[in-house]
Amino acid sequence: MSAGGYDFIVIGAGSAGCAVAQGLAARQAGSVLVLEAGPSDRVPLVRMPFGLVWMMGSKRRDWRYSSTPQAGLDGRALGIPRGRMLGGSGSINSMVWFRGRRVDFDSWSVPGWAWADVEPAFEAVERVLQPTRLRGAHPLTESLANLFPGNDPQAIPNPEREGAGVFAYNLHNGRRRSAADAFLRPAMALGVQVMTGHQVAKIGMTGNRAGFVVLDDGTQIAAAKGIVLSAGSIGSPEILLKSGIGPADDLKAAGVDVVYAHDGVGANLHDHPGAGMFFEGAGSGYGLVPGLAANWLAAPFQWLFLGRGLFASPTVEGGGFFNAAGDGGEPDVQSHFIPFRLPHDGKRYAPKQGYFADVCVCRPRSRGSLRLTRDGLAIDLGIFNDERDLDLLTTGYMRLRALLAEADLGPHKAPEIVPGASVSSEEQVRVHIRASAGTAYHPVGTLRMGTDDAAPVTPGLALRGVDGLFVADASVMPSVTSANTNAPSMMIGHRAAGLIAAAGAA
What we know:
By secondary structure, the protein is of the alpha+beta class. It is 27% helix and 22% strand. The chain folds into 2 domains: 1-68 and 78-131 and 170-271 and 443-506, 3-Layer(bba) Sandwich (FAD/NAD(P)-binding domain), CATH 3.50.50.60; 136-168 and 273-361 and 384-436, Cholesterol Oxidase, domain 2 (2-Layer Sandwich).
C-alpha cells in the first residue's frame, strides 16, 4: 500500500530530527515528512520539568530498552530509557545543556567536524533555545560552588575546567523547551508534515538507492531526494539492521536478507558510566516529610501559574567537572547533583529528606555493540570492558566523597547513607561500583562517521554504500562528548540539514 511521496523523509522527531526538519524547510530543499513512532508531547508532565520522574519508564512515551547482562557489572542488565514522542529523549531528559569540550570534536578527526566547524552551529542552536542557568535551585545546589576554592558561585560549570554549581538548561519560565518546540513546530509552519504513531519497519531499496520507507502496517512512503535516520543511537541502527543493512553474518543468523553488508553498523556503542552516593538527614534535601507538605501541595499551582516551585525543578539541578586524581590535570569526570531523596532502598515514598550525587567518566574507553538476533535487539553497552574506566571512576568517586565531606554545604548538609562509612577502601569502593553503577543515559556511536571504510557514515552524514540515505543523531559520534549529549545532538541535526540539502540538490 502506497501513501504518496515526499522529497525527504526524516525518521524520528527527536532532538536531532527536529533540527534537521527545520533546516531542510528553511532552505526550501523540498517537501519534508517527519515520522515519529510515539505520540505528541502535548501533555503537562512533559512540559513540567519534574514530570520526567513519571515520563521515564512510561509505557507509552519511553522505548524502555534493556541491555544484555553486563560482565563488568556482575552480570546486571541496565535499563536504557529513550524518548518515544515528539522531542524524543529531549522530552524526558533533565534538560542539562553542555556543548562538551573543544577537544572532543577536534579528537574526532573527521573533516568538517572540528571545534571550529561546529561552534557556529552551537551558537545558532543556542540563539533559538536560549539555555539559561536554573532559577530557584535548592540551597544545597547553590552551595556546590564551595567544592572548589575561588569558584564563582554564579558561574555555570564548564567541562573545560574544574568547578561546580548550578547547571544551564533548555527550559523557559519553568517549562521544558525541547527541539520539538524550538525547531519542529516552526518547521510545520513552513510546510513540514508530521505523522505521529507511525513506526518504521524498514527502509526499502530501489536499486542501490534508499527509495522508500515501510511502516509497521505495510504502508510504503517514497522519498525522492533522501531518507534521514534520526531515530537515535539505538533506533537508527535497529532500523538499518531490520532493513538488511549491517554485519552479514548477524543478519543471516537473525533471518534477515542481506541488502548491504557493513560490519560497522551497530558497533562502537558506548555511554558515560557512572555511580552515585546517597545522603539523608532531616532538613537536608527535598523529601516527603511533614515539614515540606505545604511545598508539595503548592507545587502544581506554583508551577502552573508562576513557573516556580518543586515541579519547576528538573531534579538534576547542578553538579560539576573535576580531575579524578586531583592532580591539577584536566577534568575527566562529571558529577550530577539531585537535591531530592532518591529510593536507594526501594522505598520510593519513604518519609525522609536527602540528596544524591554521582560521578561519570567523561571520555570512556569501553565499547559495546548493538546486534539483531532472532530474539530481538541485543544491546551490549560494554560497561567496563576496558577496566581503565573502572579505575578512573573509582578514583573520581573517592575524590567526590572527600569534596562533599569537606565542603561547606550549609545547614542542609547530611551524612552519606550509601555506600556509607563501611565502604572506605579503594577496593571496597571498586566492588561497590561494579554492584551499583549505571549510565548517564547518553548512548552514542553506533553509526560512527569517519573517512575510513570501517565507518558506516561519511563526514557528509551519508550512509556509506547506499545512495539517498543519511544519518543525523548521536549515533554518528565517533566518541562521546565530555558531558550531557542533548546539545551536541541538536548541533548535529542543525549541521546535517545543510549537508543533506546540498546533497539532495546535487
